Every structure is written in C-alpha cells, then in structure tokens.
C-alpha cells in the first residue's frame, strides 16, 4: 500500500501558516493606516487641552490670527514647531518688551507683520497658553472625499433617475398607446369588412360656433363679460406701471443679507447707519465692509449652500478686496481702488418725500416693515409695492409712538379726546395730509 502522509499534520501546518500571514498583514495594514500626525504629535500639544484652547483662541486670538492663513498676524497652526515654549510665553505676555530686548526672533516676527504691535496678554497663564498651542498644533482636518453614488451639494448630478428620463419614458409610452389604438382601429375595420358589416358614418351636425352665433342672448352675455374682463385687466396693468415689487437685480458683488443679517445677526443700522439720522438710508461704504472683512478672507464650509458654494462666496470677498484695494497677503492697502456700481432697488418718484429718520428713530418702525424679512434674503429685492395706497394704509393702522416723544404730547392729548381713543394713528395725527408726503 502506498503512503500518502499525515493529512491532519499537513492541514495544521497550512492553517498555522495562513494565520501567521493574516496576522502579519493586518498588523502592517494598521500601521500603514495610522496617520503620520498621530505618530508625530508635537511636544507642545502635550499637557494642554485643545478644546479649552479653541475657546481661548476664539476669544483672544481670532481677531488678528487665523490657523491656516495670514491675517493681521501670522498663521498660527504649527507655531510650536517654530519657537520654543519659553519664548512663546514671553511673547504672549508682553511682545513689546521682547522686541525692545533685541531678541532676534521677536524682531523678525515684528518686521514680517508690517510692524503691527501684538496686544499683551499678561492675564493668560502658561497653562492657558499651553492649551492654545495644543489647539494650534492639531492637524488640519481634510475635507472628506465624496462617497461614490452619493449626491454632492451644489453639483448638478444628484444621483438616481433624472426627471428628463422619466418624462421621456412617459412620452414614449403615450406614443406607443396612440400607435396601438390606431392599429386596433384598422384591424377592427378590416374584420368588419370581412364579415360584411357596414360601419355607420357620422351624421353631419351644425358646428358649435354656428349654433352659438345664432343664439343672440349668448352673444350679448359673452360680449358684456369680455368687455368687463378686458377693462379689469387693463386697469390692473395700468395700475402696475412704475411698481417694481419683487424687483431683484443682480449686483456686481453678491451680498447675502441671509448670512449677514440672518446667520450673523448684524443689525441693519450698523451698515445703514444713515437711516437713523438722515432722509436716506444710504449705501454703506466699502470701509464699513472692511471693518469685518479685513480679517475674514473666506467663509466657513458650513456657509455653502446647494446654490452657492464656498468658492463662490470667497470670490465675492476677493471682489471686495479688489474694489477697496486690499492685499490680503501683505495685510495692507495698495492704493488702487475701483468703484462698485451698485444697482438701486428702491426708488421713489421725485415728487414723494420720505424720511428714514422720521420712521426709524421717531416712529420706531422696524426695517422689516417696509423691506420685508431681509434676514432671509440671499439676494435683496423690493418687498413692498411702495404705492400711495400702501403708504396710506400703513398710516391708518399704525399708532403714533409717544414713549419719549414729548414733541407730540400736547397735540396727542387734544386729538385723542376729539376722536375718543387712547392711541392715535398716524392718519389721525395728520398723516393723510397731502403736504406730508408731497412737496
């Protein structure tokens, strides 16, 4: 008999080899998958709390520094790899003294940043600074790669079957049904002819338009209806001449009221400060924009929408920089500015007088009353019709604000007794007089 060896022994050896190879492969894979940043944690990040450091950074440093871009001061990500902690403690506590001492590194940083002095933070402890350094030492999170088969925000490919394909399929089905009905009709006619069945022809009838023309009552009623309907639509068309409600022009720089007045809750009168003291609300100067955007050169990733990407918003900020002549790399003005040709949205006739300060400051009317929910507008538009009737209706239903308005106290008391009310409307106070709004 021929020997074939010990199968169980060979099987054990084979399984043992496979187990060792699998273990070695998994270990190697795990080592390769470990990010380099995890194995190279900076020494400065140890001992500090990056979560607390982020809070301290936002409250003390974010006005002049960014993590990954130069602002008023240099970018701070990885700053612990450029300077030792003892030097950083001295610099944060009092950079001016460090510069006066002639420290080479301090003088270099001062000169590289346009000799802008850094605010001293003596109240920050070394533990606080350690936490800030721990936060700035974190590796920048890369944007996750899109998963195949999922829709990407702002892209035209939303996945699945498009509406065009569905509509095309429905149109094809309808066409097939029409063809089938036509074929069935031909088959039935042939069958009837083969069996000697005669298909009855249609009896001629009077066309409906001839029957309608012979009925004089229907002709009269229809004519009156058409005349009245035509007059109604002509009147409505003529009354809309010069009314630009929902006018929504495209501006040279895309400005989102939704982001500024909505998400960031910036008060309307911060930018339109003239509305409080002047007849006109005015167009904010670009210097007002630069109060914030001097340090905000790009928007957050969460700001992007399906319609407008982060790159789009960043491009609009760059348009602002070009117009005002700001070089974000050197954090300085170039002196080369360009005018921004804004498109006016609200425009009253020349014979109409409207004073913003009278309504905003004296009457205490909110901006949204006339301009709509601007905090929700991505593109600013004309909310109200701004017609004479619209203004009169507002005067008829709006009570006069008397708190802190002693100018109207005496006349308000006399007129309230005359009309028998506690609160007078603007109309009862003379708000319907022609001279109030017309020169």
Q: What's the arrangement of secondary structure elements?
A:
Layout: H1 7-33, H2 36-39, H3 50-61, H4 85-93, H5 95-100, H6 104-112, H7 126-136, H8 163-194, H9 208-214, H10 216-239, H11 257-263, H12 268-271, H13 286-293, H14 310-324, E1 326-327, E2 332-333, H15 356-362, H16 367-371, H17 388-397, H18 409-419, H19 427-431, H20 434-437
Antiparallel strand pairs: 1-2
Keywords:
flat; Cytochrome Bc1 Complex, Chain D, domain 2; 2 strands; mainly alpha; 439 residues; two-stranded antiparallel sheet
Main sheet record: 2 strands, antiparallel
Q: Which strand order do you get reading across the main beta sheet? A: 1-2
Query: How much is the radius of gyration in Å?
Result: 38 Å
Shape: flat
Distance between the termini: 127 Å
């Amino acid at each position: 008999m021929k020997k074939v060896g010990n199968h169980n022994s060979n099987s054990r050896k084979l399984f043992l080899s496979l187990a060792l190879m699998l273990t070695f492969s998994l270990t190697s894979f795990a080592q390769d998958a470990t990010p380099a940043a995890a194995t190279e944690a900076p020494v400065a990040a140890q001992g500090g709390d990056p979560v607390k450091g982020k809070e301290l950074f936002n409250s003390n440093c974010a006005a002049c520094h960014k993590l990954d871009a130069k602002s008023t001061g240099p970018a701070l990500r990885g700053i612990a790899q450029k300077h030792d902690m003892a030097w950083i403690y001295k610099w944060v506590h009092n950079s001016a003294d460090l510069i006066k001492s002639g420290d080479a590194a301090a003088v270099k940083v001062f000169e590289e940043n346009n000799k802008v002095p850094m605010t001293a933070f003596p109240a920050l402890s070394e533990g606080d600074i350690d936490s800030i350094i721990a936060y700035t030492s974190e590796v920048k999170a890369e944007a996750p790669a899109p998963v195949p088969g999922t829709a990407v925000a702002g892209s035209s490919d939303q996945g699945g079957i498009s509406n065009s394909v569905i509509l095309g399929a429905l149109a094809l089905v309808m066409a097939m049904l029409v063809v089938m009905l036509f074929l069935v009709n031909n088959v039935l006619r042939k069958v009837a002819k083969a069996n000697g069945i005669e298909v009855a022809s249609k009896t001629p009838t009077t066309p409906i338009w001839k029957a309608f023309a012979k009925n004089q009552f229907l002709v009269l009623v229809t004519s009156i209806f058409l005349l009245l309907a035509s007059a109604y639509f002509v009147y409505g068309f003529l009354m809309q001449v010069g009314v630009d409600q929902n006018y929504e022009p495209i501006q040279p720089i895309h400005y989102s009221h939704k982001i500024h007045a909505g998400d960031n809750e910036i008060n309307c009168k911060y930018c339109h400060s003239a509305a409080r003291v002047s007849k006109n609300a005015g167009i904010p100067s670009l210097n007002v924009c630069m109060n914030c955007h001097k340090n905000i050169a790009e928007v957050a990733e969460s700001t992007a929408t399906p319609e407008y990407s982060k790159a789009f918003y960043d491009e609009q900020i760059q348009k602002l920089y070009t117009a005002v002549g700001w070089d974000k790399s050197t954090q300085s003005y170039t002196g080369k500015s360009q005018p921004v040709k804004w498109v006016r949205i609200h425009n009253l006739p020349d014979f109409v007088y409207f004073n913003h300060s009278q309504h905003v400051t004296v009457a205490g009317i909110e901006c949204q009353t006339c301009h709509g929910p601007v905090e929700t507008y991505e593109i600013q538009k004309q909310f109200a019709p701004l017609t004479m009737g619209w203004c009169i209706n507002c005067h008829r239903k709006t009570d006069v604000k008397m708190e802190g308005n002693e100018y109207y106290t005496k006349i308000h008391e006399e007129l309230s007794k005359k009309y028998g009310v506690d609160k007078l409307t603007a109309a009862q106070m003379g708000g319907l007089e022609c001279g109030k709004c017309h020169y």
